Q: What sequence folds into this?
């Protein structure tokens, strides 16, 4: 009775109205949260225990000897060194973020602020074609890269990721730019600026949140990509971390500890990016509401 | 050098068929402080934007100084940057990512002036507008009044021929508004720069304007100095728009007793059977003892505005008018009203005459 009264005091007229609703909502949220985080806890626990313990089952709690051996093995694996994979992922992901964001920003500004023939048709076509899945386009992409002698090269994969990113980033930034107050660009016109000066000196600096959002999302997408890397990169030295992970499976048995530590290593970069750029990540997903 | 502006028969139609401006013509003298006054949607901002070059007229032309900056029929169009104008938007449009100094220096940097010249000019103009100590701040850290001055500084720093102001006082609160109005007017007189100010607030217009043009629905109603607009309004719209408290306007049939009492029958032509009679509250007075009163009535309401008192009086049962009230007047008093001046308009709303009965 006392506890219920306490709840009542705190939550009369709160977001959900009655304290009972609040309780139920919290129970549901916590349940989902715990269920969601359970696999990660499992992976993390498995990654820091030696193989001998893991063999007896993922959730066996004793004996428990934490060790970093799995991580060392994964990073310096003789066949598929995750350290190498880490570096390759960066080599691919960073240019694959910078290039499409730069190009898409230019295109997006044109779509947002200029009028030219077939503008709307172009835009809609671009959006429409974005729906094509990777699996559908991979065959022509494969042959195209082959003809250009770019198969199994960093440049080839970077080009593909950049091209893949340009349409959605253009869409995203075009929406962002159209929400900027027009007056700033107009007064810059009166002040004497050319379109190029307006774009680089006024629009871009103000659009930084949007640009960062797009970059963060694109980076995470490219880092997490498995399919394109799998199809277009064969040299173990050039493989990215995501495609190295399954190759850590042994032929006769699966070293779960090794795999788990590899997974954690692969996850950690987007996770850190998410934590640092949290504001922009969320802004990117839900869209930016502009305050004048 | 200040430049005159000629607006020659400008019409602007926004697709599909929104007529923003219709055959507007006027001549603004060099160094004049000209105000375009009108309610929302009257087309005043559109006119300003056409002069600036941010819009193009459907018909007509604009001449700044000796140069045709836009001619819809000849296909001439000069970019805003080549018109040598300075402009201040209603919400000032300061670049939020730059300091006040950078904001003001922006037009000069675009022109690629040497660094020390830029510095000199920025500091000069900041001094003139009394914002020298704000130069390192970003717009977010300034008050409305300060932001406005930075915006004006940015407009003036390139020493334009023409200054365009779009409702510069609407975002300021009442107290600051009065100081800002004086400030802008003094500045304009000192610099002698041709200035066009657009507003919907007639008090602002009257406080600063040498001449005022009233726009309604894209059509110019009247152009003239404030006294003329106040004393000789060209039509009923202007008469009721200008003046605070608003003019008492009565739409009367010519056989209405009021017409005889006020002795205006002589001015009415035979065609009209309806006239408008307008009496400004400040041009009629109610008193308990008056010799040559025009009519009697009963006070319904007394309004006290500090310097004056107004009484709302019922006369002839169905008409009520607001007039100046003497000190001793109270609600419910029987008073006598003397009309100093009245304005007569015909059934179209156009002015016939202003009479002292």
A:
């Amino acid at each position: 009775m006392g506890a219920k009264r306490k709840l009542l005091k705190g939550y009369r007229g709160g977001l959900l109205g009655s304290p009972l609703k609040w309780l139920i909502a919290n129970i549901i949220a916590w349940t989902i949260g715990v269920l969601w985080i359970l696999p990660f806890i499992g992976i993390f626990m498995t990654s820091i225990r030696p193989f001998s313990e893991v063999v007896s089952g993922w959730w066996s709690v004793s004996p428990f000897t934490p060790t970093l051996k799995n991580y060392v093995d994964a990073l310096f694996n003789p066949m598929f060194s995750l350290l190498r994979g880490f570096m390759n992922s960066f080599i691919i992901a960073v240019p694959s973020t910078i290039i499409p964001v730069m190009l898409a920003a230019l295109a997006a500004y044109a779509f947002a602020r200029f009028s030219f023939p077939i503008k709307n048709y172009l835009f809609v076509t671009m959006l429409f074609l974005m729906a094509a899945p990777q699996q559908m386009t991979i065959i022509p992409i494969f042959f195209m890269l082959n003809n250009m002698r770019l198969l199994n090269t960093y440049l080839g994969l970077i080009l593909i990721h950049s091209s893949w990113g340009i349409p959605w980033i253009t869409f995203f930034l075009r929406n962002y730019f159209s929400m900027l107050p027009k007056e700033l660009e107009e007064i810059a016109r009166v002040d004497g600026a050319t379109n190029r000066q307006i774009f680089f000196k006024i629009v871009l600096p103000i659009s930084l949140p949007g640009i960062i959002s797009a970059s963060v999302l694109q980076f995470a997408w490219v880092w997490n990509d498995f399919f394109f890397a799998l199809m277009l990169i064969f040299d173990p030295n050039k493989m990215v971390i995501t495609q190295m992970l399954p190759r850590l499976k042994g032929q006769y048995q699966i070293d779960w500890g090794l795999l788990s530590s590899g997974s954690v290593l692969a996850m950690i970069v987007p996770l850190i990016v998410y934590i640092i750029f949290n504001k922009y990540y969320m802004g990117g997903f839900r869209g930016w509401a502009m305050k004048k | 050098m200040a430049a005159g502006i000629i607006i020659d028969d400008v019409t602007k139609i926004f697709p599909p068929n929104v007529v923003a401006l219709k055959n507007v013509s006027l001549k603004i003298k060099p160094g004049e402080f000209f105000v375009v006054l009108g309610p929302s949607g009257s087309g005043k901002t559109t006119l300003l934007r056409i002069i600036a070059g941010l819009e193009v007229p459907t018909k007509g032309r604009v001449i700044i100084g000796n140069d045709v900056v836009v001619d819809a029929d000849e296909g001439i169009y000069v970019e805003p940057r080549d018109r040598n104008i300075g402009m201040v938007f209603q919400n000032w449009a300061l670049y939020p990512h730059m300091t006040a100094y950078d904001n003001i220096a922006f037009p000069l940097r675009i022109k690629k002036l040497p660094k020390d010249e830029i510095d000199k000019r920025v500091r000069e103009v900041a001094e003139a507008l009394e914002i020298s100590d704000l130069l390192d701040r970003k717009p977010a850290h300034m008050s409305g009044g300060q932001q406005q001055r930075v915006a004006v500084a940015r407009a003036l720093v390139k020493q334009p021929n023409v200054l365009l102001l779009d409702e510069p006082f609407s975002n300021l609160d009442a107290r600051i508004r009065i100081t800002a109005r004086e400030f802008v007017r003094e500045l304009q007189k000192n610099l002698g720069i041709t200035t066009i100010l657009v507003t919907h607030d007639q008090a602002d217009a009257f406080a600063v304007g040498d001449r005022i043009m009233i726009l309604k629905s894209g059509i110019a109603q009247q152009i003239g100095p404030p006294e003329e607009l106040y004393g000789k309004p060209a039509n009923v719209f202007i008469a009721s728009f200008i003046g605070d408290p608003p003019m008492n306007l009565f739409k009367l049939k010519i056989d209405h007793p009021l017409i005889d009492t006020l002795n205006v029958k002589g001015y009415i032509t035979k065609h009209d059977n309806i006239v408008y009679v307008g009496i400004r509250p400040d041009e009629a007075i109610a008193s308990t003892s008056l010799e040559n009163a025009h009519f009697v009535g009963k006070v319904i309401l007394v309004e006290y505005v500090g310097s004056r008192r107004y009484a709302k009086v019922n006369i002839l049962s169905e008409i009520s008018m607001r007039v100046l009230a003497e000190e001793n007047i109270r609600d419910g008093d029987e008073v006598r009203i003397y009309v100093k001046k009245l304005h007569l308009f015909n059934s179209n709303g156009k002015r016939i005459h202003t009479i002292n009965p």
Q: What stands out?
A: Chain A touches chain B through 16 residues (CB under 8 Å). Chain A is about 75% helix and 0% strand. Chain A has two domains: 2-69, 74-286.
